[in-house]
Specification:
The complex is a heterodimer of chains A (344) and B (398). Chain A has helices at 3-22, 30-37, 63-76, 92-98, 112-115, 159-170, 183-191, 202-212, 240-259, 266-269, 275-280, 287-290, 297-304, 308-315, and strands at residues 40-45, 53-54, 60-61, 82-87, 103-104, 120-122, 127-129, 131-136, 150-154, 175-179, 197-201, 219-221, 229-231, 234-236. With 344 residues, chain A is of the alpha/beta class. The radius of gyration of chain A is 24 Å and the shape is globular. Chain A has a five-stranded mixed beta sheet, sandwiched between helices. By secondary structure, chain B is mainly alpha-helical. Chain B has a domain at 88-183 and 246-393: MetI-like fold. Chain B is 65% helix and 5% strand. The longest helix of chain B is centred in the N-terminal third of the chain and has 34 residues, at 86-119. Chain B is globular. The relative contact order of chain B is 0.12. Classes of the chains: A alpha/beta (344), B mainly alpha (398).
Chain lengths: 344, 398
């Protein structure tokens, strides 16, 4: 090598190092990425009836799945433009942290540590739930306080696991956990009798009993609700624009139900004189633009997916096998907790 | 005139070469550039990760190890409760992994050796059956085999209320095998000390008697002497102390058995599955080792009048061991790493607990670093120990 080529090599090496040190690679705004790819990547459950479950053809349905579809309808105008990434309880947080999914709609409880340490922001709660226990009727147990010494099936990496330990500690009882990652295997272990009780959110217990139990009437969900489990969609820290979009998509679904706008009557509602409905459906311009979306964002949601009440009834409520009560999940006007902020 | 070696001044003068033409300098420069490039990549990745983690507000650092774990673990070798720290939970996981790995390695060696020898048997049925077993075990995925074992152990056993009772105090149910264990007495410590002393004494006697056999040909009943030296004194001590034996018997209380020692179906499934799978590979390694010893050795030994079992033990296996040890080390490492599949069947091994912690704290990068460091340490330790043994049995050539 001549002296001159060594010099060039040295300069090139320094330049490369300078470039490499200056700009660490980081993910850009989520909305741009979604618009560029034309698809919303959504982290969902591997198979929980009523919330996120593939059918035999591989099409996903559920309450959380409907949130994903609503996002796709709002951002891309087409509720089918969703890529579903099934995640177990242990995979879901790294998937969101790393950028593999844009939003996590996977019956995830909103807690302080997840909001801070894990670096997530939680959109409005889409389902207020609580943790409970399910046991076989033939054990003759009427209350969770009789479970001293029991073997309890639970999934790892969940608030369920922590609440379970806390509950037994508080009530001075002991238990043996059987910790299995895959939901299918947990359910199989419980129905095979390997553990005495199964614990998860009560909506999950109802879903499992209806979909997986050999005979649903042989199992009973105990009356104790041992924790608060507000289930909400989650996004990463550092992208306020995307957080706003997810937040207001959920609020739009609440507001639509409050105003009586449904999938069937949304086209007639376009002609309504109610200023709130006109702002919501984009007849009055400006709301969509503020979110960096098309003004028909809420119209697309309601037309293609439905309002919150319709999603609830279809997936977990009176039109579904689970038949869960609205309970806390009714609108604030109906003694529930669902309250959409005003779209103005 | 005496001949002298050519002095330095008469040797051809050393040529002065420019640094960039000097081969040694070029070599050093190439190494520096390579190390620099690798270091740049590593530093870039680390810098990138740290900046991204900060940007997204994800916690970093190892302080989480001192926080309360708040989750329960079903099988622990040391004291643990949900009030213990995350660090302690990881230690519980490491001990579980080490337990499974250690037992797995011991059982694989025994079972694999027997299988390998059986595969070479002159009995047609034995040879074919072991051959079939080895082929099936080697060619199906390990995870599948673990699931089959787990289902068998889970489904075929009854509920605790209707458990099998083969012996008084022993229960077999779908919660596992429950055994009575003796409660610890102070005399047991002395018994263990005496047992170890007996083992050392046996080793010394064995060495002496082997030397005597090499020199004079006189044989010595080493096996019986060894048994007497190792088991005799502790037993004597036990009887002299009045035979203090108090059994902690498992009793069905409510849902589960309380007291005694229990072996869960998950642990049993993991152990049996790993041993069944790895011993198939070990059998093939042992077989190749035995076949590598030249037939002349076996023929010479039988010409000298040695029984076939003595030939195997004294002539063939010591030479086969040299060929067997290196691939066997790989199998041991493979078994240790395969034990991480426990996360699928519900046994709380190190990977399973680390996964739970990564999830609860969100600090995936730190937890994976710990995972890799621990597995690296375990694997390197096994390799080093096996390398010592390898050098011990190696053929010392002239």
């Amino acid at each position: 090598m001549t002296r001159f080529s060594m010099l060039r090599f040295g300069i090139a090496a320094c330049a490369l190092t300078a470039v490499v040190w200056s700009a660490p690679a980081s993910a850009g705004p989520t909305l741009d990425k979604i618009k560029a790819n034309g698809v919303v990547t959504c982290g969902v459950n591997t198979g929980l009836a009523g919330f996120g479950m593939p059918d035999k053809q591989g099409n996903y349905t559920g309450l959380d799945v409907d949130i994903c579809r609503a996002l796709a309808a709002a951002v891309l105008g087409d509720a089918t433009k969703v890529k579903y990434v099934p995640t177990t309880a242990q995979q879901r947080f790294p998937a969101l942290q790393s950028g593999e999914v844009d939003v996590l709609a996977r019956n995830t409880t909103w807690t302080l540590l997840r909001d801070t340490d894990l670096g997530f922001n939680f959109a409005p709660v889409t389902y207020y739930d609580g943790q409970g226990f399910m046991v076989a009727k033939k054990l003759g147990i009427k209350s969770a306080k009789e479970l001293n010494g029991a073997t309890v099936c639970v999934q790892p990496g969940t608030t369920t696991e922590l609440n379970l330990a806390d509950y037994f500690r508080t009530n001075k009882m002991t238990f043996k956990p059987l910790v299995i990652e895959k939901l299918d295997e947990v359910e199989n272990a419980f129905f095979a009798g390997r553990c005495d009780a199964y614990t998860t959110d009560r909506s999950g217990l109802a879903a499992t009993r209806v979909s997986k139990a050999p005979n649903p009437d042989d199992y009973v969900i105990l009356p104790e609700v041992i924790s608060k489990e507000p289930l909400a969609p989650a996004v990463r820290h550092g992208d306020d624009e995307w957080f706003d979009i997810v937040k207001w998509v959920v609020f739009a679904m609440f507001d639509a139900e409050e105003k009586g706008v449904t999938q069937k009557n949304v086209d007639e509602m376009l002609k309504s004189d109610d200023p709130e409905i006109k702002r919501m459906l984009g007849v009055t311009a400006g709301m969509g633009k503020a979110l960096h979306l098309d003004d028909k964002w809420a119209y697309n949601i309601i037309k293609q997916v439905g309002n919150y009440g319709e999603c609830f009834d279809r997936n977990v409520g009176k039109d579904s096998p689970l038949k869960l009560d609205r309970g806390l999940n009714a609108l604030w006007t109906n003694e529930g907790l669902m309250y959409g902020a005003p779209i103005r | 005139m005496a001949r002298t070696a050519p002095s330095r001044a008469q040797v051809a003068p050393v040529q002065r070469v420019a640094p960039w033409r000097d081969v040694r300098m070029r070599g050093i420069a190439a190494q520096v550039v390579t190390v620099g490039a690798v270091a740049t990549v590593v530093i870039y990745c680390a810098h990138n990760a740290i900046v991204n983690l900060e940007q997204r507000g994800i916690a970093t650092g190892f302080a989480f190890l001192r926080r309360e774990a708040a989750f329960e673990i079903s099988s622990t070798l040391i004291e643990y409760s949900p009030a213990s720290t995350y660090g302690r939970a990881l230690v519980v996981g490491i001990l579980n992994t080490l337990l499974v790995s250690f037992l797995g390695i011991v059982l694989t060696t025994i079972f694999g050796t027997l299988l390998g020898i059986a595969r070479l048997s002159s009995n047609w049925l034995v040879q074919r059956v072991t051959g079939g077993y080895i082929e099936i075990m080697r060619n199906t995925p390990l995870l599948l085999q673990l699931i089959v074992w787990w289902d068998l152990l889970r489904v075929s056993a009854p509920l605790p209320r209707e458990a099998f009772k083969p012996l008084p105090g022993v229960f077999i149910s779908n919660r596992g095998l429950n055994l009575p264990i003796p409660v610890w007495q102070p005399i047991y410590l002395w018994m263990i000390a005496v047992l170890l002393a007996g083992a050392i004494a046996t080793a010394v006697v064995a060495h002496r008697m082997h030397r005597r056999q090499e020199l004079t040909g006189k044989q010595f009943p080493l096996v019986w002497t060894g048994v007497a030296l190792i088991l005799g004194p502790p037993l004597l001590l036990f009887l002299l102390a009045g035979a203090p034996l108090e059994l902690d018997v498992p009793v069905l209380q409510g849902f589960n058995f309380v007291g005694g020692e229990s072996v869960t179906p998950e642990f049993a499934a993991l152990l049996f599955g790993l041993v069944a799978y790895t011993s198939a590979f070990a059998a093939e390694i042992v077989r190749s080792g035995i076949l590598s010893v030249s037939k002349g050795q076996t023929e010479a030994a039988s010409a000298l009048g040695l029984r076939p079992s003595w030939t195997l033990r004294l002539v063939v296996l010591p030479q086969a061991v040299r060929v067997i040890v290196p691939p066997m080390t790989s199998e041991y490492l493979s078994l240790t790493k395969n034990s991480s599949l426990a996360v699928y069947i519900g046994f709380p091994d190190f990977v399973s607990i680390a996964n739970t912690e990564a999830n609860q704290t969100g600090q995936v990068v730190e937890v994976i670093a710990i995972l890799m460091a621990v597995y690296l340490t375990i694997s390197l330790t096994i390799s080093v120990l096996m390398n010592f043994y390898n050098r011990y049995v190696a053929l010392v050539e002239r």
